[in-house]
Structure formats: C-alpha cells, structure tokens
Amino acid sequence: MKRKKFFKLTPLLIAVTFACSTLLTACTLTKPTQKTTKTKTTVAKKEKPLPKDPNPTNIPVLMYHSIAYEKGNDLRIPQKIFREQMDIIKHDGFTPITLDELYSHFNDEVKLPPKPIVITLDDGYKDNYENALPVLKEFGFKATVFVITCQTDDSTDYMTSKQLKEMQANGIDIECHTVTHPHLKDLSYDKQLVELRDSKAKLEKMLNKKINYIAYPYGSYNDDTVKLVQNLGYKMAFTTNEGQANKTQGMFTLDRMYISNANDVAYFQRQINGEIK
Ligand SMILES: [Zn+2]
C-alpha cells in the first residue's frame, strides 16, 4: 500500500515542479504600489447565521493547474476529464465552497454544507477561462484561481485582466500566487516581501476587492514566508503538501490534494472521498 502510494505520488510531484517551471516565462518584478484599494460595499442581506460546528473536519482542497490536453504532461487535465471529475463531485454529494466559507469554518467553526470541497486552480492559465469556466458554470460550482501576476496581460498562455474580471463576475474567486512564481524559501526576506506584497496589491487594484488568500508556488515556503503573509494581511495560505486541509496544520500552511492526469477517474473518486492514504 505504502509502496504503491510512493509510486503514484513521486512522479506527480516531479511533474508539478517540471511543468510549472517549463510553462512559465521570465518576468520582471513590478514596482511597489502605494495605492490602497477601495473595498466594495455590499448591502447586508438578512440571512440566518449558520449554526456553529463544534467539530471542524478535514476538507479536501483540490489543486488543479491547466485544463487542457498535452501529451505527456500530467499537470494538464483535459476538459473532458475535468467535466467527468465535476460530475463525480456532484453525484457523490459534495458541495464546492469558497475560501471565505472555509476560513469562516476554520475560524468561527461555522457549520458547512454536507461534504464540503474546495476547487483551486494554480497559475492562472488562459485555458482556465476557455475550458474550466464553462464547466464550472454548467455545474454551478464555486472555485478559486491563484494567479501569477507578472503574467497577466503579458503572456498569451495566461488570462488577461479582462478575463480575470470576467471569471470574478461569474463567481470564480481570484487570489494570489506571487509576482514571478519563485521558490520562496530560496529568497531573502526582502525579496519575498516584494513577491507577496506586490502581487496582492496588483490584484486588489485590478479586481477592486481584498486579496486574502495565497498558494505558495511549488509549495515552497519558510518561516519568513509565514511571518510575511500574516503581516501583509493574508488570512490563509496553501502549500502543495498532500492531504486534506485541517486548521491544525496552521492557517498559513494548509494541505491540498494534487489532481493529476496520470490517475484515472476512479482514483479521483477515492482521492476526494479520503480513501487514498
Ligand atoms: Zn504554480
């Protein structure tokens, strides 16, 4: 069992590292922005508060990247497979939730819908707009995209600011994945600060909302990273450590589950149901 898992996971992690680094192109850092972002005011709805959940549970946070086919690249999930996976999520009774809902649950122990699940997509590939959005709309599912901000409006492989705004208008949450997608743990404190601060500021200005969540590129972080994200006002941060998210992992080092095209749909079903240990 252990041996099988090793064989399953090791090539996947290599694939994440390799594919991420080959898909990226070089970018330059943006200048720090001094502007503060206006927060949208919304009319408070009269809603009954959800009952408190005394037993916060493990919650699967799925980690996707590109939704497109590429031979030999397990990081990319073809749209057909993505739709089959969304269908399993629906038929197994899961409810996709936002990161705000996950945060409330972890912090206030607010009760979530039955079988909550979080769908995240890293990097902000253009195919998320072309191939993932139509499927997510079809199922009425909530999802989060973690964006590399230096790629926005600078590369044909990544979503433009216009597309990001359209994703947001369709209920897809846009959050942060640094400016240039570095291995954060290899950077000095000051360089990490620029990566974590400028990406947040750029997205806040572009999308006119607060950016509260971040995914660490390659799952790379150290003590400085955790200190910085807290000081910069992020509320949760995600790694690539394999597993379901639980607040006992720490709000700035939460686990996710890597979805690879090397595995079949039956494996995906066992994965989200917590049957892969
Ligand atoms: Zn990434």
UniProtKB/TrEMBL annotation:
Record bears the keyword Hydrolase: yes
Signal peptide: 1-26
Keywords, ordered alphabetically: Hydrolase, Signal
UniProt subcellular location: Secreted
Major localization listed first in the record, in broad terms: secreted
Chain residue ranges for the region called Disordered: 35-55
Hydrolase found in the keyword field: yes
Classification via InterPro entries: Glyco_hydro/deAcase_b/a-brl (IPR011330), NODB_dom (IPR002509), Polysacch_Deacetylase (IPR051398)
Listed EC numbers: 3.-.-.-
Molecular function in Gene Ontology: hydrolase activity
Pfam family, one: Polysacc_deac_1
Domain NodB homology: 115-277
EC class: hydrolase
Protein name per UniProt: Polysaccharide deacetylase family protein
